[in-house]
Design a protein that fits this description.
single chain, 406 residues, Urease, subunit C, domain 1, 2 domains, eight-stranded mixed sheet, four-stranded parallel sheet, binds zinc ion, metal-binding, zinc ion binding, histidine metabolism, HutI
Length: 406
């Protein structure tokens, strides 16, 4: 009897940072066997069974981590707001910029006006730098169209990104992101449109994997968000929520009641919110890029999340207004320096815990038998270097579904 394992490829010669259970769990001098894009064996090379591998790849030291997952982005949008960024630094006030039609409304206009091919081109420009630094899975939200036609257009572009580039894309319908100007003073009427038309159409077209909303004084109230969640439930889609970014509205506790995959931002989350999120398994997605750009001073309550056992993820929040971030690794550094996460928590935040924020924890985010073979080889001595080096692009080899990504 031979216990020979047949595989398409065998990878060895590096230490493997598995991120099992959200911890490093390093396998020294490990090996990974892959068949049909999935891991069929992983462990110490010294204890490896006999392998019949079609292809063997030897690393020359270094470490292997799971592919990085950016679980909160707004990568698809028309134009950008670098002009406003410069105006503000030249002393022009928010009020003046708003009076000129600036702010989110300028992005809504540019997104509505753009052809699908233009949106795709612009989003490819933003997605490529993320992929170059080891991202293998990315979530992309709509939310700058705010009409049925333009929201669906954004979601189609997000899907196309996943077809054009070797990356897993999860899409989220964020029609309840902002009040479109034509609905000024009629927020409830707009929420009717979101619930009765946009969410059902996005779901029917298979364009949305989840539904999100922005719960804040300058966006939508908890009561309006709850209507959005009910519509998502009816459409069979899980929910997420932008919550507690600028004030405490108990949006994250509301999200937890609807078993949300995640509540995101959370600078003003309370102990009650944390307890509710822990009980429902809702992930806290921390977004240091927006915190940094807005020069916020209130940090998300990381100690409360630890105390209550809330799973924490980190994402780029890549968006034109508050986080034009094109580096997830920089967000790992910021989560450590600004929010005091440990490098291990931060790496879990862009691997297994980010997978959980997308409902993918059974198949993605850690290197274990049966999971997808998305991993990255780094010529580094220890995983903390991923958090330590500030900016720049570290060389890496990305393996996506068992194949080297060019
Ligand atoms: Zn966001």
């Amino acid at each position: 009897m031979t216990s020979e394992i047949h595989c398409d490829s065998l990878w060895h010669g590096a230490d493997i940072v598995t991120m099992r259970d959200g911890k490093y769990h390093v396998i020294s001098n490990g090996a990974i066997a892959v068949r049909d894009g999935k891991i069929v064996w992983i462990g110490e090379q010294a204890s490896m069974p006999v392998m019949a591998a079609a292809k063997t790849m030897q690393f020359d030291g270094g470490i292997v981590t799971p592919g990085l997952i950016d679980c909160h982005t707004h990568l698809v949008f028309g134009g950008n707001r670098s002009g406003e960024f410069e105006q503000r630094l030249n002393g022009v006030s928010y009020a003046e910029i708003a009076a000129q039609g600036g702010g989110i409304i300028s992005t809504v206009k540019a997104t509505r006006d753009a052809e699908e091919t233009q949106l795709l081109e612009q989003a490819l420009f933003r997605l490529r730098p993320l992929l170059a630094e080891g991202v293998t899975c990315v979530e992309i939200k709509s939310g700058y169209g705010l009409t049925p036609q333009s929201e669906l257009k954004m979601l189609r572009v997000a899907r196309q990104l996943g077809e054009q580039l070797p990356v897993e894309v999860k899409t989220t319908c964020l029609a309840a992101h902002a009040l479109p100007p034509e609905y000024a003073g009629r927020a409830d009427d707009y929420i009717d449109l979101v619930c009765q038309t946009i969410i059902p159409e996005a779901a029917a077209a298979g364009l949305a994997d989840a539904v999100d909303a922005f719960c804040e004084h300058l966006a939508f109230s908890p009561a309006q968000v709850e209507r959005v969640f009910k519509a998502a439930e009816k459409a069979g889609l899980p929910v997420k929520l932008h919550a507690e970014q600028l004030s405490a509205l108990s949006g994250s506790a509301l999200a937890a009641r609807y078993h949300a995959l995640s509540a995101d931002h959370l600078e003003y989350a309370t102990a009650e919110d944390a307890a509710a999120m822990a009980a429902s398994g809702t992930v806290a997605v921390l977004l240091p890029g927006a915190y940094y750009l807005l020069r916020e001073t209130q940090c998300p309550p990381v100690d409360l999340f630890r105390k209550h056992g809330v799973t924490m993820a980190i994402a780029s929040d890549a968006n034109p207004g508050t986080s034009p971030a094109l580096s997830l690794r920089l967000m790992i550094n910021m989560a450590c320096t600004l929010f005091r996460l440990t490098p291990e928590e931060a790496l879990a935040g862009v691997t297994l815990h980010a997978a959980k924020a997308l409902g993918l924890q059974a198949s993605h985010g850690s290197l274990e038998t049966g999971k997808v073979a998305d991993f990255v080889h780094w010529p580094l001595a220890r995983p903390a270097e991923l958090a330590y080096w500030l900016g720049g692009q570290l060389p890496c080899t990305v393996i996506f579904r068992g194949e080297v990504r060019q």
